[in-house]
Every structure is written in structure tokens, then in C-alpha cells.
Amino acid sequence: MDSREVALTQGKLFDYLDSPLHGKVRGEQSIMDFPLFSLAKRPQMEAMTYEMDGVKIEIKPSSSGIATMWDKEVLIYVLSLMVQHIGRTGGEVQNVFTFNAHDFFRATGVARPSKRDYDRFIEALGRLQGTQIRTNIKTGTVGTKGFFSWFAEAQATTRETASGVDQLMPVRVQLCDWLVRAVSRDSRIYDYHNDYFRLGSIERRLYELAHCYCRDEEYEMPLEMLGAKIGSSSPLRTLKSQLKKIAAENKIPSYSIDVREVVPDVPARDKLGRRVGKPETVVVMRPKDRSGGGRAALAA
Predict the structure, then answer these.
(1) Which residues fall within 8 angstroms of residue 59, CB to CB, at 6 or more apart?
(2) Is the model's pTM score more than 0.85?
(3) β-pairing, 26-28 with 189-191?
(4) Which end of the chain, N or C, is less packed with Cβ atoms under 10 Å?
(5) What domains can you pick out in the chain, each with its CATH number?
């Protein structure tokens, strides 16, 4: 990449950085299981809500929208640094991380980041700090009544060089207490497959759900429930068509999916004894094999 053509380049490193990240990118179960990010690439300015099985989530946008599935890459990278720090120090908990943006791109598979990649990275930091979340999901047995943001603080500073190019300095972020407790106390940590970062938003959600629910056997979920878990706002017929295409392409790492029509064991009947209603659509997720990453030890 020619620095004369790119306004943002990586600056000199601080004396101490929490990067580079060694090993796999890792995530925490709660942010894999529940729809906490927008599936859209365009700014989503409408609030998101989720309520199922006693879990309630409310998400409000920042001035630039709700944090997206692509913004989530930055968050799971920082969570990975936290897991690495805990393992490296024998259990010491840290919530502020300083890292080299170029290492984030390396870890997420961007070999030669462009100006647009850096611009999107800066935009992601803003949405992760600005998006407001309220949920009754407890982490470390502690609940949060008010709203919180993924990053309590996010600083991305630049320095102008003699040639007039803005040089991106190492980034400093502070994780919210909700996530710090989830990682340090609940310890429900999972590896992400490298190919995750090549997937579309729905495929990413399917991978995350399969990672949470499929260990050694297949797992079946009704289409309507799956749509809510993914965070899809599309009509069910549209979602069903999307899932059939994803199933045929079979690009999700470590897992495959199948869309089936299931006839109830005890079908509903009308007053004349005739069967009524349609077969239920279910989505079946199953592991392709035993390789490709699984649950990670917190101290690994």
C-alpha cells in the first residue's frame, strides 16, 4: 500500500501494546447467542428489541446507527486480547487495551488494509462506543439496570507527518463492565474459525449459533425462533429462501445447515376431523467434523 495514496497509516507503536494477538480470535457466549448487532451494512437508525425465554434486550442507535456485525469484529478482537492477557498473567483482569490497528486487520484476514478499511475501522469504534444496550442478561451473577455501551471509551488519534499524511496512532479502548464480567467470571469462551470473517452477516450468525448449540450432535430450531435469534427483520418466507441458498452453498466453517418441513406428530384438526395447518419449517445445524476450533480454555 502506497502511503502517499492512503491518508491513514499505522503510526509508531507505544512502548507497550496489548497486541499482537497470538492464536485464534475468541468470543464470549452471550454475544454469540443473542442478536446484539445489526445485520445491515447501511446505518440502522431504528432501535432493536429482543424478548424470548425470559431474556430481554433493547438496543438504541448512536448518531451513526447501531453497531453492526462488521463492527463486532473489533469487539471480539479486543475480547481476544483480554483472554490472552488473563492467560498470560495467570488471571489478572484488565479492561483497558491499547493495540495496533494493523494487527486487528491481520487477525481478521485483511492482508493489505486500504484507506477505506481504516475509515470503516474508525467508524466501527464510534458505533461500538455510541450504541446503547439494556438487557436483563446477568454476567458474573451481576445484573445491569441501565444502558451501557460496548466500549466505555474509544480513542483513535492521528498525527500529521511532515508530508501531510495523517498517521493513525495505536488505539486505546475500555471495555464495558458487562463484558469484563462475562469474560473474567463466566469464562464461556469460544474460538472463532478464521473463515468466519469471510462470511455474510446471516452466515456469521448461523455460525455463532451453531457454535453455541452444536457440540457433537445436530441441533434443530424452528424458523421463527431462528429468525429472532439471528436478529432478522425479514419476512419468514424471505429468510427461508436465504437460508436455503446458504445451505446449498455450504460455506459456513465447521457446520452445515438444512431447512426442513416437519409434520407435527399430532396435527391440528378442524371440527370435521380434517387436518389443518401447514408443516412447520425447522432449521437443522450440525457439525461437519470435530476439527475447526471449539471451546477455548480461558487461560489458554
Answers:
(1) 36, 47, 48, 49, 66, 131, 132, 133, 134
(2) yes
(3) antiparallel
(4) N
(5) 10-192 (no CATH), 199-291 (1.10.10)
